[in-house]
Amino acid sequence: MALEEGARCRLLLVRHQLEQDIKPSYLMDHMISDGVITVDEEERIRTYSTRRDQAAALLELLLRKDNRAYISFYNALVKETYEDLASLLQRDLPRISTKTRNSTSDVPSLNVQTVLSEGGVPQRPVVFVSRTELVNRVRDNLYRLLKEPGWITIFGMAGSGKSVLAAEAVRDHGLIEDCFPGGVHWLSIGQVDKPDLLVKIQSLCFRLEQSLDSQSLHRPPNSLDEAKERLRFLMLRKYPKSLLILDDIWDSAVLKAFDIHCRILLTTRNRTLTDSVSGAKYEVEVESGLDDNKSLEILALYTNTKLQGLPEEARSIVRECKGSPLVVSLIGALLREKPNRWRYYLIQLQQKQFKRIRKSSSYDYDALDQAMAASLEVLPEEHQELYKDFTVIEKDVKIPAKVLSVLWDLEPEEVEDILEEFVNKSLLFVDNHSKTNLYYLHDLQLDFLVEQNRTELESLHAKVVRQYQQHYRDGPPTSRDEESLYWFRYLTYHMAKANLSQELYSLMFSLDWVSIKAEILGPAHLINDYVEFATILDKENSDVRSQFQDFLSMNGHQLEQRPFPDVVQLALSQPQTSEVYRQALQKAQGRASSGKLYFDWLNKSSVESLPHLVIHPQQGSIIYSACFSHDGTKVASCGTSKNIKVFRSTSGEKLTEIADQDDEVLCCAFSPDDRLIATCSSDRKVKVWNVERARVMRVFQEEHEEQVNHCQFTNTTRRLLLATCSNDKCLNVKLWNLNKPTSQNTIFGHFEPVNHCCFSPDDKYLSTSSNDGTVKLFEVSTANEWKTINVRSMFAEGDEDVLVKCSTWTADSKRVICAARNAVLVFDIETSDMLMEINTSRLSMVQYCHACPTSNLLAIASSNYAVELWDLEANKKKADCSGHLSWVQRVQFSPNGSQLLSCSYDQTVRLWETEKVHTSSAICLKRDSDVVFSDKDIIVSAPDNCNRLQVREGLMGSMLFQSEEKPSRIRCTCLCRQPPVVALGREDGTVQAAGLRARNALRMVGNRIQRLLASNTKSVLAVGLCSGRVQVLELPSGKLLASLLGHTKTVVHCQFSQNGQRLITSSEDTTLRVWWWQSGECKVLQGHKEQVKCFSLLPSPPTSSRLLSWSFDGTVKVWDMENGEMLQDMEAHQGAVLACHVSPDGHFFATASADKTAKLWLCESWQFVQALSGHQGCVRSCRFSWDSRRLATGDDNGEIRIWSVEGGSLLKICARNGKDGMDSLHGGWVTDLQFSPDDSLLVSTGGYIKWWDVEKGEALQTFYPKGSALKKIHVSSDFSTFVTIDNIGILYILQRVM
């Protein structure tokens, strides 16, 4: 609708005066709020250089607008105190029709504005941002007053925007027309005494009467009672359908003066005020503040700036304002006057200088601190003192009433009453969504308390500690309720803030505290404490602080397991010089006296270069990718769990979890400023997330047709792009601009899946690695191919396909490094020449590689569970980082190069300190070992991965013998007791036998050596070769005594008879042979259809000797060794026989099979006795007790069952309820079982070692190795010493603590 002619003429008539005086920028704020001009129109007006030109442009625009624009302009003049100019326009103000009014619900009509102005309702603030949800809640309650009078309470803390909300709620034509046609009347109250209250009511009555005829005017009421009656008469008789708004009510006594059975809306900080009056009551709580976007919008409007044009300080100011509409508006108004003071006001907020953030609006208090203080002054003095104690509560922390009961030394019921008062007065907030109510302060309230009580902070924190110590003088709490959780989380914080250093040392250097806090809260909180309070703790003893922190970091993944592990046992694996170990040993010795089992790892000092932090982020899920943030403080991980988790890199504490993924997440990457994370997944989706809020910011259109393998941001925000690559055959690499829903560029070049993409450090190039055997380099600015590096050509022709897994750039952007097969290749990008080739184990595949951004180091992840660290300058391996239990999928250096992370299919992320890994850490032992126990000593021999034979003395930890490095792999070793000799066999068939302190003969004996065995009675050595040849050598000379030909395939097991005259061997050729090795006579035992992995000599009468053999063919056979006759052939199982054991009394033998059963048999008659069913996995191990009355069986699910031999009944199931994160009862297959001599204990190996109470079937102790997959455990005769080697080559010599 066009502007009325009268209004147009009036505008033209006074145009010259308006152009001379008005400031258009101030007026346009109001007109934009009313919706009569747009931001673009405002921008066009601002392009004029002078104020007068801008005024002329604004008036020219008004002449093209409608009546609403004229009215808005008039109102803006009034609000900006141009009353003289507004009066020039007033006589020709146009009227807006009802039809027009109803069609513009967002902008109040002139009639509504008139009603509100006449009622004294405040205008909208100069800068206004709608809070639609809260406004609608108030309006919904106002409609409830249509049927009957009542009270609506808007309550909230100081500065939460209650008054603006009340005024906005009634700024609605439909609401006034339907519910309050008699008008809306506003009365500001505040903190008043009775005389002031009387004056306010007199003023209201006068205003109401003045609107009536002149005969309705009366003298002012002289008392509150008279005033109340006068107001009752006016509201019920003269204005029966009107609304009375009482703003800023403090006292219930004041409210009683308005208890006149009318419709009232009130704002207050005390929600309980209406308890003292009658009528229907409704509440609207204003708890949550403005979100960041709303707050930024306010600052933009105040400063006449577009959102995108706000300085970087704007977001920081918004965070400091904590969502408070008051504080944002105060800052905005100040910036409007001083637009160059963004940094200054940010600093004032950060330093809590509330006095300097002074009045710049119609708010009742000159500064923010006065508004806060006013809320406290209404409390009784004793409650003001109690409220002061909230000063020490950390931000965003919710506290249970029981903690305050301890702090205030009051009964819980008294505490709850006091807290209710605080809540009702909006001095405290309550979260009643948990089992117990939790109380908390708004950040601004807490900031105010800290500023007010700054000189008392130390004493207030000390009070908390003293009250805790008094209440828990008999020991810390052990429950898991909210009270206990608070003390475990924040007791150390209070001690540190109270400067109670000795108390902090005593607590944090205590293994008891570590144990109970780790069990209740997990290890991450503890690690954070040692990091946060390191400065204080290091004054006492920096070594001890490091020892406790390292213990938690390296065992954190174990401390997250349930059932909770024994912390003392874990601590016994710490170095002997550690305070953690000293305390653990002392506790273990004390508890051992009452029968508790503990085991000391005697040779732990030989272990080096283990990760300094192990995180288990995706419980039960494989991890595909992990990455550092660019500031190095965070680690993100993703995998099959379909979510992303973000952790602190110092402690493993979870910071954020993003759980809105639709499929497995294959890769995640931080943006350069760490505010965003990009993810790509199997469902072809590419998403970008806000890290802090865990919300999706952008879901790109699904342009990839196959799974998206990798994503990476550019390294700087100068031109922020995201690169992705996929399994598509053609359009498989894309660049995305975060401001666009579709890709910015699709990069062509590869016609096979692309596994990885990587920006060069200078963001000039993008490298892509593909299954087509090439690495391509693309110019980022043009998306054009710059160069192709043919990696396939570096491998021999005719080999299988060359798949390039990934590529990485050196820090100078001059070399690109790629991984393919078991090699890593380094290329010069200018010439495409290969500069270096690094070959890893031929039995593994390189999964990933990453170049350090600050040094010449290169990290390589491989399928053999290893992480290798190479020095590119020296072309030399620096270390093998051992610890992962499955394929390593990803490695990445931290931005400063000090740390390296690796993630694996074993569900862990491990962090390594690059300066603390050593070349010696690359040395690990093979699991085929031999052990000799003597009275007070242990000797262990095993080959290492450097092809040297090592012989170690366990108790002393010294190296007794180490051979020189061999050119070929050592396959096996064995020890002989007397004389003390050791022998080894190599892949090339060489056997070396040597004394333990002197090297001896070396003899070439044929092909690869498969098995060595020393006779118990003679100084001879039997050697089984892969060629099928068996040789017997004299020890220690190495003289060949016999070469036994007969087997046609690899010899897999051999054993001397008790008198040493016969040698029994088994082979992959399915036969066994009994050799009279001195004469060369041989008996061939034929009958098995598959290889014979093992056999056992049966107790025999003097006249005969019998042999029991079992095979993968499912059969068990009994042989007479004297004549080679098969005495019995038993079809024992439907699957392969995996283990067999003969009872010590010689009456029974047991078999265990892949068919998930075990069986009992009689030795004399060879009859089947009993099938032992119930296992859910392959039964891999079995063992009789020494009294032959029980049989223990173990399966691949980690379950152990104990059976009665006599009746075959099941006695106990061990570890039924103890599954760990690897979804196994034992961390893996149960591979070995051994009973103690008195049959009361059972030790088992699998993923770890467990000791059991045989009668109860309960686990007594667990030892967690650094690796996994233990094959066999060697046990001393007194059951006090245990020796094994794990899959990463670490030797464990464990001795029971007595």
TrEMBL record:
It is found in: Cytoplasm. Residues 3-92 form the CARD domain. The keyword Magnesium does not apply. One of its GO terms (biological process) is apoptotic signaling pathway. The keyword Protease applies. WD repeats lie at residues 658-699, 747-788, 881-922, 1044-1075, 1085-1129, 1130-1161, 1172-1213. GO terms for cellular component: apoptosome. InterPro entries: Apaf-1 (IPR017251), APAF1_C (IPR041452), Apaf_helical (IPR042197), CARD (IPR001315), DEATH-like_dom_sf (IPR011029), NB-ARC (IPR002182), P-loop_NTPase (IPR027417), Quinoprotein_ADH-like_sf (IPR011047). Its main location: cytoplasm. It comes from the Eukaryota. One of its GO terms (molecular function) is peptidase activity. Keywords: Apoptosis, ATP-binding, Cytoplasm, Hydrolase, Nucleotide-binding, Protease, Repeat, WD repeat. PANTHER family: APOPTOTIC PROTEASE-ACTIVATING FACTOR 1. This is Apoptotic protease-activating factor 1. The lineage of its organism: Eukaryota, Metazoa, Chordata, Craniata, Vertebrata.
